[in-house]
Amino acid sequence: MVMTQRGKTVARSVRLRRQLLAILGVFAALCSPFAPDAMRPANAGQQAADAITTIAIVYVKEDRERLPPLSLLDFRPPNEGYDGAKLAIEDNNTTGRFLKQSFTLGAIIGGTRDELIANVVAEAKAGVGFFVVDATAETLLAMADALKGLPAVIFNAGASDQRLREEDCRANVKHTSASNAMLTDALAQYLAWKQWRNVVMVSGPQPEDKLYAASLRHSIKRYGLKLLAEKEFTYEPGSRRADGGYEQVQQQIPTFTDAFPEHDVLLVADVANQFGAYFPYRTRTARPVAGTHGLYPTSWHPASELWGATQFQNRFQRLAGRNMNELDYAAWMAVRSIGEAATRTSSGEPKVLIDYMLSPKFELAAFKGQKLTYRPWNAQIREPIFVATPKIHVSVSPQIGFLHQVTVLDTLGIDRPETKCAAFN
Amino acid sequence: MNAALKFICATLVATVVVASAAMPAFAYRAFVSNEKDNTISVIDTEALKVIETMKVGQRPRGVILANGGAWLLVCTSDDNRIEVYDAKTYQFIKNLPSGPDPELMEIHPSGNPLYVANEDDNIVTVVDIEEGRILAEVPVGVEPEGMAVSPDGKLVVNTSETTNMAHFIDSTSHETVANILVDNRPRVAQFTSDGKQLWVSAEIGGTVTIIDVAKKEPIHKISFEIAGINADAIQPVGMRINKAGTKAYVALGPANRIAVIDAKTYKVEKYILVGQRVWNLAFTPDEKQLLTTNGVSNDVTVIDVAKERAVKSVPVGRYPWGVVVSED
Question: N or C, which terminus of chain A has less Cβ within 10 Å?
Answer without folding.
Answer: C
